[in-house]
Amino acid sequence: MSDTSEKLKLAILISGRGSNMITIHKACQDPYFPAEIALVLSHRPDAKGLTYAQEHNIPTEVVDHKEYSSRKDFENEMNSRIEPYKPDLIILAGFLRILNAPFIEKWPNRILNIHPSLLPKYKGLNTHARAIDDGQKEAGCTVHYVVPELDSGPIIVQKSVPILEDDTPNTLAQRVLEQEHIAYPEAIKLVANKLLST
Questions:
Q1: Which residues are part of the catalytic machinery?
Q2: For residue 71, what are the contacts with CB-CB under 8 A and spacing of at least 6?
Q3: Domain layout of the chain by residue ranges
Q4: pLDDT per residue as tens digits for the range 53-74
Q5: What is the CATH number of domain 8-196?
Q6: Helices (H), 13-155
Q7: pLDDT tens digits for 17-56?
Q8: Helix or strand or coil: residue 121?
Q9: pTM greater than 0.85 (yes/no)
């Protein structure tokens, strides 16, 4: 990419400390990285990642899911907060809410998620415990496009780690997280460059 001013805008959705969001923000400091963060949104007012974003002058929004009687109302409010920032991509970075089809379909091929398994294996929760219990030799993470069916969208990037004999779900999760921090910026760069070239 020759024009360093041409960058896609990212809206990053978080639930907690936002370690992937922080990694993406650091990647965005490279003038040749083809994206920048326009918004960090959380459904938890106490998410620690919001503090990081505010300290780095990134706009933040909070839509507390507990204040809404239905997922439809919650997601409509999220959309109303996101749309003014005109993001090119929505990045789910440890966002612990399942999104309904109407929300996803408003952003076709524009929502990315990272999942802590080598999809299509171990969709859903407790991925590391399930991999260990099944005697798998490797685990990892997958960045994929979000579609209405859970953890089933087209794969963009995968990273793998070996499962060690003495691994617990916690030790495995920590090694997989290290790979997540490599995989997510890599995937965003791939998608952004593809969008910018069309």
A1: 115
A2: 100
A3: 8-196
A4: 999 999 999 999 999 999 999 9
A5: 3.40.50.170
A6: 19-28, 48-55, 71-82, 101-106, 127-133
A7: 999 999 999 999 999 999 999 999 999 999 999 999 999 9
A8: coil
A9: yes
